[in-house]
Write a structure and sequence with these properties.
Blueprint lengths: L11 E6 L1 H22 L2 H6 L3 E6 L3 H10 L5 E10 L7 E6 L9 E9 L3 H11 L5 E9 L12 E5 L6 E2 L15 E4 L7
Parallel strand pairs: 2-3, 2-5, 5-6, 6-7
Antiparallel strand pairs: 1-9, 3-4, 8-9
Bound molecules: 1-O-pyrophosphono-5-O-phosphono-alpha-D-ribofuranose (PRP).
The site of 1-O-pyrophosphono-5-O-phosphono-alpha-D-ribofuranose has 17 residues, from strand 2, strand 5 and helix 4.
Length: 195
C-alpha cells in the first residue's frame, strides 16, 4: 500500500480487488456496454435519443464515472437516490430520496450499481423504471453478491462474482460514510466494525 497522508488505508484488513484489477475489468465492461448499444441504437438515435446511464447514489458514483469514461458511445447521465427499509411483513420497500431529472420513456437505460446484494433495491427500481415505458433497461453492477439474493434480478454487465459474504469498502462503497474514495476494494479490520 502507498503511504497515505490521512492513513485511511491502515483500516483495511484485506484487499479483495486491487485498483489495477478493477480498472481492467471496468474497461472490459465499458466495451461490452458499447457493443450492446451499437447493436441496439441507430446512429441517428444516438444523437436524437441518446441512451441514459442511471447512477444509483451514492455507492455507484465511482464505478459510473469510470465505466462511462471507458465507453465511446455518447451517453447521458442521470442520478437516483433511494433508501430501502422494511419489516417482516413488508420487506425491502424502496423510498425515493431523489428521482430522475428526465423522462426515460422510449430511451435505453443502463442502470449502474456498485453491488447487488439481496437484490431488493434493484428489484424495486427496475419495477419503477419499467412503469415509465423505456425502450430497454439493462443493468451493470460491478459486484454480484449472489449468495445473499432474496429477489431474482438480472445483471447484464457484471464486474465480479463475490463468492464470500464479505463487507466491503472502497471504490464507492462505505462504512459509516467513509472509505468511498479508496481506489481499491477491501475489507475493514474487524475491531472497526460496530455490530
Ligand atoms: C448499496 C448498493 C445498492 C444496495 C444493494 O447501497 O449501492 O444500492 O445497497 O443492496 P441490496 O441488493 O441488498 O438492496 P446503500 O444502501 O449501502 O447506499 P449507498 O450506495 O449510498 O452507500
Amino acid at each position: 500500500m502507498t503511504d497515505h497522508k490521512y492513513n485511511i488505508e491502515r483500516d483495511i484488513d484485506r484487499i479483495i480487488y486491487t485498483e489495477g484489477e478493477i480498472q481492467r475489468r471496468v474497461k472490459e465492461l465499458g466495451v461490452e456496454v458499447d457493443e450492446y448499444l451499437e447493436r441496439n441504437v441507430s446512429k441517428e438515435e444516438i444523437w436524437s435519443r441518446p441512451p441514459i446511464a442511471v447512477c444509483i447514489l451514492r455507492g455507484a458514483s465511482v464505478f459510473m464515472a469510470d465505466l462511462t469514461r471507458y465507453m465511446e458511445v455518447p451517453i447521458e447521465y442521470d442520478f437516483m437516490s433511494v433508501s430501502t427499509y422494511g419489516d417482516a411483513t413488508e420487506p425491502g420497500e424502496v423510498r425515493v430520496l431523489k428521482d430522475l431529472d428526465r423522462s426515460i420513456t422510449n430511451r435505453i437505460v443502463i442502470v449502474v450499481e456498485d453491488i447487488v446484494d439481496t437484490g431488493e433495491t434493484l428489484h424495486h427500481l427496475l419495477r419503477a423504471f419499467h412503469a415509465r415505458s423505456p425502450k430497454a433497461i439493462k443493468v451493470s453492477s460491478l459486484l454480484d453478491k449472489s449468495s445473499r439474493r432474496k429477489k431474482d434480478v438480472d445483471i447484464d454487465f457484471k464486474g465480479f462474482d463475490l463468492e464470500e459474504d464479505l463487507f466491503l469498502v472502497g471504490y464507492g462503497m462505505d462504512y459509516a460514510g467513509k472509505y468511498r474514495n479508496l481506489p481499491f476494494i477491501g475489507t475493514l479490520k474487524e475491531e472497526l466494525i460496530d455490530e
